[in-house]
Amino acid sequence: MKNNIILFAALLFSTVFTAQNKGLVANSESPYSKLQSVGLQDVKWTNGFWKEQFDVETKNTLPYMWNLYHNDSITHAYKNFEIAAGLMKGKFSGPSFHDGDFYKVFEAMAATYAVTKDKKLDTEMDQAIALFAKVQRKDGYIHTPVLIDERWGTLGPEEVKKQLGFEKYNMGHLMTAACIHYRATGKTNFLDIAKGVADYLYDFYKKASPELARNAICPSHYMGIVEMYRTTKNPKYLELANNLIDIRGTTDDGTDDNQDRVPFRQQTTAMGHAVRANYLYAGVADLYAETGEKKLLNNLESIWDDVTYRKMYITGACGALYDGVSPDGTSYDPTVVQKIHQAYGRPFQLPNATAHTETCANIGNVLWNWRMLQITGDAKYADIVELALYNSVLSGINLEGEKFCYNNPLNVSNDLPFQQRWGNERESYIKLSNCCAPNVTRTIAEAANYAYDLSKEGLYVNLYGSNSLKTKTLNGEILEVEQQTNYPWDGKITLKIAKAPKEAQAFFLRIPGWSQDAAILVNDKKVNEKITSGSYFKIEQKWKKGDVIELNLPMPVELMEANPLVEEVKNQVAVKRGPLVYCLESDQLPANVSVNDVVLNLNSKFTTNFVDLDNRKLLSIEASTTVSSDNSWNKTLYKPISAKEGKSFTVQLLPYFAWGNKGKGEMTVWMSH
Fold first, then answer.
1. Could you say which of 420, 430, 513, 515 would form a disulfide bridge with 383 (CB–CB 3.0 to 4.6 Å)?
2. Is the pTM of this model over 0.90?
3. Tens digit of pLDDT for each residue in 576-613?
4. Residues 509, 389, 101, 70: is their CA dihedral positive or negative?
5. 356-376 burial by CB neighbour count: b if 16+ within 10 A, else e?
C-alpha cells in the first residue's frame, strides 16, 4: 500500500515554482524550516566589499575556472566527458572527483547567470548539458571513469574500482548544480539528467546491501537528493534521503574517517575527515527540515557545540590535523584505533603552522551553519557563516581571483624543518587535489543568497553588504530594499525601503555575537529597546517608500585569547576587528626576523588605515611590537629569557583572508604579548 501511494504521488509531482523556492535551497515548503531562502536573482551586490569580490568572480575567477577545466593539457575534466560520450577514444585521467569539480564550476556559472543574465553563460552551459546527456547511461548512471571503461576498456577493472569512492559525491554535485541551473534559467534540460541520476540512486540503494552502499565518501549526495525532492516534489527522493541515513554506520567495515563506524543517530561529537563530516551534517540538516525527526536535530546541535566550542579555529576553519587517529588515547587495539585524514582531532587540539583546515571543510562549515540557521532562525549560526566566509573561505583564493589554497594555516614559518603535504602558497592549479578552487568559486557566486531570509514573520537580514533586494514576502507582496554600508570596514548599515507591503512588515536585523553597544535608528529616531548581541532584533511597523533603518555596530580593535586548554596559543593573542581576523606578515619586519619572534604591545594605539593591494582597498591595523635582541634559535631548543631590552617596530596587520598576496613569506595570526 505504501509503495502504491509513493508511486501515485510520483505521478503527480510537478516543478511549479513560487518566488520563494528559487533560492540556493528550495525550502519554501519545508515544514520544519523556520526561514526560507530568497531567490537567486533577488539580491544584487551594488558596491563595496562584496561587489568588489563578485566583480573579481565574474571577470577573473569564473572565466579562468571554466577555461581551466576545458584545458586538457592541465585538467582532463571536460575531456573525460567527451571520451565517455564517445566523441573520441581515450582514457580517464585525473582524480576520481574530477566530474564533481566540473559540476561545481557549472553551479557557479548558473548562480552567476541568475544575477547577470549573461547570454554567453547560458550558451556555454547548454553546450555542457548536451554533452552530459550523451554521457549518461540509459539507467541514469553518470560517472566518467566507469563509463569510459565500459565504452573503451582503457582503464581496467582494478583502476575502475579505485575510482568508485567519489562516485556518489560527483552525482551529488551534479544534482545540486542541476537544481541551481533550473532555478536560474527555468530550463529543464539539466534537471532531466539529474532526475535520471536520482532515479538511479533510488533503485541502487533500494537493492544494495549496506556493504555495497558504503563506498559513498564525502556525502554531497545527501544535500543533492534532498534538493531534488524539494525541486521536483517526487516523494521517492525523500524516501531515499531517509534510507541513506538509515543504512549509514550499519556495516562492520565502517570508519570514523567516513563518519560511518556507528549510525549517525549515535553520533554526538564531530569526528573524522572534516570535509566529509561537514557535508554530512549539512545533508542531515536538510533532511531534518523535511522530516522533523528530533533525534537528527539533537545530534546536530550536540555536534555543533563540540565543533564551535572545542574544535574550530578563530577563523571559522575546521579540520586541525593532517593525520589523526580515532579514538585517540583510549585503546591499543589496532582494530579499534583508526587513522584519520585531515581529522577534526581531539577537543582543543588546534595547531597553527600544521593546521590542515582545507578550504572545502570551511565551506562545508558555511553550508552546515546556513542550513542550521534556516531550521532554527538562531543568529549564532549566521555568526559562523559570516566568520568562515570572511576569513577561512576567502583565504582560499587570492585577491585577483586566479590562485587558490588547499589548506589555510594560521602560521607560516620558514624554519619548520619538514615538508608538509600541502604548500603555503596559492596555486593556479593544485595538481593532486584541486577540489577547493571550484568550491570557493561557487561559494562566492552564491554569497548574495546568504544575505537575507524570509519567514512568516518578516525579513531576516543575515549578512551586511551594499546590495539591492527585490523579492516577495511569503504572502506574495513586493518588498524592495536598498542596503548601503562599507561593511566589514565600517559598522554603519542603512536599509532604505523602496517598496513595502501595505500592512505592517517586520525586519529582523542580525546583531553579531562579536558586537557590543549596537544602536538602531528608524528615520533618525533612536530605538530604545534592549539590543542583545548574538540575536536578531525585530522592528515591525508600517513602512513607506524612503523610510530608513540604520544599524550602527561599533568596531573597536579586539585582542582575542583562546581557551587555556588550546596549548598551542597559550599566552598569545590574536587581533580581530568586526568579523575580520588579522595577521602579521614578514614583509613588515627586518630581514632575519621571524614573525614568531614578535611580541605584540597590548597598549598599542591600534590605528586603522586603508591600503591598496592588488586593486583592492583593505583596512590595515597599525600596531607596535618588540623583538628580542637575542632572537637566534640555531641548535637551541630552550634558553633563558633575555634581560636585554628588545627592539621596537611598528607593523601593519592585514585581514587574514588577504595573507600571501605580496609574495612568499611568513605569516602568523597569534602573537606573544
1. 513
2. yes
3. 999 999 999 999 999 989 999 999 999 999 999 999 99
4. positive
5. bbbbbbbbbbbbbbbbbbbbb
